[in-house]
Automatic annotation (TrEMBL), chain A:
Cellular component GO terms, alphabetical: plasma membrane
Name this protein carries in UniProt: Putative spermidine/putrescine transport system permease protein
Domain called ABC transmembrane type-1: residue spans: 200-406
Transmembrane annotation, as ranges: 34-58, 204-228, 235-258, 282-305, 317-335, 341-364, 385-406
GO biological process: transmembrane transport
Record's subcellular location: Cell membrane
Family affiliation: Belongs to the binding-protein-dependent transport system permease family. CysTW subfamily.
Domain of life: Bacteria
UniProtKB/TrEMBL annotation, chain B:
Residues of the ABC transmembrane type-1 domain: 72-260
GO biological process, one term: transmembrane transport
Protein name per its UniProtKB record: Putative spermidine/putrescine transport system permease protein
Record has Transmembrane as a keyword: yes
Alphabetical keyword list: Cell inner membrane, Cell membrane, Membrane, Transmembrane, Transmembrane helix, Transport
Keyword DNA repair applies: no
One GO location term (cellular component): plasma membrane
Transmembrane spans: 12-37, 77-97, 104-134, 140-166, 187-209, 242-263
InterPro entries reported in the protein's UniProt record: MetI-like (IPR000515), MetI-like_sf (IPR035906)
Membrane topology: Multi-pass membrane protein
Amino acid sequence: MAVTALEGDAGPDVDRTSLKTKLRRAERVNRVRSFSLVAPLLLFVLAVFALPIGLMLVRSVENTEVRETMPRTIAALDGWDGQATPGEDVFAAFAEDLVQTQKERTTALVGKRINYEVPGARSRFLKAGRLIDAGGGGPWGEKFIASDPEWGSVEFWAIMKRAGNTLTPYYLLTSLDLRQDAEGAISRNAPDQSIFIDIFIRTIWISLLVTLATLVLGYPVAHLLAILPPARANVLMILVLLPFTTSILVRTTAWIVLLQSNGVLNDILLALNLTTERVQLIFNRFGTVLAMTHIQLPFTILPIYSVMKSIPASHLRAARSLGAGPLTAFVSVYMPQTLPGVGAGCLLTFILSLGYYITPALVGGPQDQMVSYFVALYTNREMNWGQASALGAILLLITLALYALFNRVVGIDKVKLG
Amino acid sequence: MLAPSYATPREKLFYFFFALFCGVVFLFLIGPILVIMPLSFSSEPWFTYPLPGLSLRWYIDFFTDERWRIALQNSGIVAVFATLIATGLGTLAALGLSRGNVPFAGLILSILISPMIVPVVIVAVAMFFGFAAVGLNNTYLGLILAHAILGTPFVVITVTATLTGFDRTLTRAAASLGASPWTAFRTITLPLIAPGVTSGALFAFVTSWDEVVVALFLASPDQRTLPRQMFSGIREQISPTITAAATLLVIFAALLMLTLELLRRRSERLRGTGA
């Protein structure tokens, strides 16, 4: 606006450009000022949130254990052609490295890393360490192979050589139940070791069930809240918002109290003679989906409600007056207009459900644990941080893809709270 | 009463079942929370109705037991500081973004909101590794920073929502009357966006107050928070002290919701929209 007005002026060209420049400069100053308001939080989020997550992603392909602890062996393996058992130079380097790892107590660490790909390797490494401790000299090749013929395996040394690379696809492949053999070909893991695809499918399936349940339960409630007079709707809204602001842990505790075999729900079922013995309601899929549905229900209801609230009641009346039956009017006039809310609510619930950890851990059984549980398990208990990071990376990828979809379909700036 | 006046008897019957269905869903929503509260007043440590007798022993236990007391104190410290950081930075960012001339505003907003979307275990594990490198694990500061991150999206969302209805001519008028940007902000903008800032702060507070996963990874027993104490309690054996803690948290949540509702009304009144 300002620019066109200026151009209409009869002033000389020089003034016009200088005014334009000034205006542009003022706008730039303004932009910088706006950005400087955003910058502190952006930097904070990038440093404390995005950077650690980025490092976690790196960790899912990082592979420094073997290279750092057995540098001589890896260097010696560089010259190995992979056709036959490596020569004495490799074994001598390996023995030298083992002397070092025994001193630094890292033999078990390397053994554990190789053990991921060669079952039994950890104990073989520990045995080799004891062989080194016993003292004596070479030739090491004969000595190692005499202690365990597996030391002569070409396949083992090929995997050892590969484990010396600084990057590995191993953890990501394992997260997808894939393995890479000594030659580098990728194949499916043995069925008894294939657990992760099942876990991802389970996670998605539970999230779908929860999303569907919240939609079926939430859609009518959102409609009721939208058509009631405000005073009564506000009272009923409390019943939606109180659970929303109550701690997830409190609600999960409540479900444990309700569902356990000597809990309240079983008491009611027995008192009503609906069952003759106590039913297992908890530590199974039913309990998990029920508790998660309870927690997610407000997240689905609120976006649907806010869309329904904006649909004029006259639309339905008009449809009816034009001869549509109640069902036709609802399905063909009202429901299509609620779809943006349904999309927003369901997508939000689905995305949030994918990351559930606490609730399944407390009310689910072993078969109901979702990806997050295994990320925590591999971090805390198994100490296999590469695997934890790889599982986390895949879960993050799925979540972010859905988040991008949500952003495109709904728009993150449209999200409201309460 | 729900059915329109022109409804046929069949429709009225339908509306009856519709209302009934909604009633059941409301019961489902509120029931579990209502069931757990009376159990905290039980005189015996088992969870059955009718209650064997009434007592306050679990509340006495909650307030006298050293572990619960420390957990309550830790939760308070961490939540207050996390809220201050989240509210300060979040409000500034929302103000900047709402000026409408920030380059890549959409991308920046997505990044700022993402802590709400990324599964919390990923946040916890990533920070567990990242913070270990700089010695922030097992410190109050680490936990406060992590909780502040989780709280900021709520502040950004609520303040942005308040600012969309904000009349910019007000600050321009202030500036034309000679007010410095800071004076204009303090006397014009801040009072008008205060309800949004406060409800954002409340959401940030409750996020930290309820957070358990990050606390499990980043905090040592010294920094154990209330949810973490509850979590280990549930894991081992649900003692009625947990139901007492839960009841107190429900009351806390109810007060919070009430405050949010009052703030929403105030905000609507200030903007001259709403009823």
